[in-house]
Amino acid sequence: MNANEAKTILLLYRPGTADADDPQIADALALAKSDPALAVWFEQHCARQEALRAKFRQIATPAGLKEQIVSEQLAEIRRAARRKEKITVTVALTVIFAALIFIASFWLPDLNFRGPDLSLGNFQNQMAYTATSGYGMSLLTNDLTQIHAYLAQNGAPADYTLPAPLEKTSVAGCAIEAWSDKKVSLICFRVNPSLPANQSDLWLFVVDRKAVKHAPETDSPQFAQAGPLFTAVWTQGGKLYLLGTRGDEATLRKFL
To answer: What is the residue extent of each domain of the chain?
Structure first.
């Protein structure tokens, strides 16, 4: 089992449940303990699971919903009885399933039942969330050469080209993130010299351009707000670059 296969399996893992008893999940968990990059990814995955779980707990059941569902179900049973038709288990399950789908579509509109959203906008938002959600760097160093070697050794995009101003910016370290089944290189820069050594305030993400739908086709930066960050995205050498900061367009242009 490699790291990518482990990530696919661990996406099904729910913290605080008996999922760890599953043999495949147990093997993936064991690999995460020995693979630093996978361990960082797994820690972030568990954090997202906990955050999503907390969000679901905050959803209040609408007043009268239970009574409405029960009333509609009883009315259906009475109509079926008058027609002298038997209500089979299959029909009952179909009605219940339809009610659940109705509730889910009404109260959980953000759930995507059509597969993962690989659009550029979602990539920008997800990477912005990663940069500002207390992630951990896999490698702490102020040496770009060491960062390049680490990313290459761990199968993350390493054949990137930094803008000249960015090459002169102090670097804090790097990490490897996940986007669908692709690895994303995260290079962390420190513009404010008073920040602790393990923190950064300027983030560069690099991923295979083909992994992101509607990615730009030129090396001319496109600027946009993505959550708490202002971002610039461009394409060069088959790679999609995303540079983000808490500043504005003028701030970003200093590093391009």
So the answer is: 3-57, 65-107, 120-253
Whether pTM exceeds 0.70: no
The encoded tokens of residue 148 equal: 């390049």
Q: What is the pLDDT of residues 120-170, one digit of tens each?
A: 999 999 999 988 887 788 999 999 999 999 999 999 999 999 999 999 999
Q: How many other C-beta atoms are found inside a 10 Å radius of the C-beta of residue 97?
A: 10
Per-residue pLDDT reduced to its tens digit, 46-105: 888 888 777 777 777 676 667 777 777 777 787 777 776 666 666 667 767 666 665 655
The answer as to CATH 1.10.287 being correct for domain 120-253 is: no
